[in-house]
Amino acid sequence: MTDPRISLISPTGALGMGFLDESLERGIALKPDVIACDAGSTDSGPFYLGSGTPKMSRRAILQDLRRLLLARDRLKVPLIIGSCGTSGVDSAVDWMRKMTLEIAKEEGLKFKLGRIYAEQNPDLIADAFKSGKIDPLPGAPEINEQTILNCSHIVAMMGHEPIVHLLEKQCDVILCGRASDTALFSALPLMRGFRPGPVWHCAKTIECGAICSSITRADGVFAEIDDNGFSVEPLALDASCTPLSLASHTLYENADPFLIREPSGTLDTQNANYHALSERKTRVEGSVFRPERYTLKLEGAALSGFQTVAIGGVRDPYILARIDSWLAEMKVFFEERLQELTGKTFGQEVRLDISQYGRNAVMGDLEPLPQEMPHEIGLLFTITAPDQTLANDVARFVTHAASHWPIPEWKGFISGIAFPFSPPEIDRGPSYRFTLNHVLIPETPLSAFRFAEEQAG
Asked: pTM of the entire structure?
């Protein structure tokens, strides 16, 4: 290793969320060795993987990507984008490629563009399952070959090695399929020989941009790594990276705040120490990385049906006093009506969920104050069925019957639910569920991925 330190910019927590122009300019002035930015997550649920569609709009991605490509051109350093199009499926990488080439043409930019595809063939994953090359993670559901084959999309979360592979081929811009957030920031430092403990811990700290600072908005941070540790400061002058703000980020999205698993091993931050270098900048030392069996996390999603929802509010004190029995009684009628009209059964072909917002809807059975009753609640009716027409048909009789369901305290016909929309039924379209929480044991760190290179501009 020739250079004593290496510097990085994480411009924002998610491509498409935006960042301050003045922050990016300040970052460019600091002359980083690499710009990296995450563009995906499973945080928003299984729809984006299941459908293969991005969460962020093309307009938002295009704006952020243009600014980062222009910054990269000024600095002549690599730009790495991870988990393209939210889920990192192949079509999302191609979607980002088209935008990248469009910007290059409009702005007169020239660079070598590399792509890494992380989507997996369900047949090959099923074969790996039969061969004992897939292991469950804690809490993973029981699966079989058909579970895998039913997935509409499966991706493998890459480590840093596929990114290093394209960096070694002198790619200037790298678009990744599904990738570990930390791998984006670890690739170049590890390629240049920096110790993995500080590298992985720094990458974990800056993966979400300014979220590790005192002002958790969509903006960026600047980090420097040397062989003994790393330091981080926000790009915005009104924010600070403090020992508390950096240390607390290890809690984010991790079951263990000290031991953080990556494809090639585990980051151990138990002996890390944090000390402020200034009001805005903090240094971290003492982290180590322990190599382990190489695994790739698999993410898969399958179609669970089509949904229609309805939202209504209840304020009647008599209904609220007996809300559980009131809903239970109408569910009996719904079951009979569904059987009469369709021959189907709730809990089998069709599912009905009624959530009481304002009373246990968020925490469910974990709610510590289950008996507290507000003066009003919102009811969310969710019907899931094999097709959209059936879901909507069921929702229509559910909303009508529910709105007039009687209680003993009121004589005659009542309207107990206020629906804010007419019609109250809202078709949500296809619904997906995560079906894989497993790891693949690959032949090599590169074997599960496909690569492409081209000249842009």
From this structure: 0.93
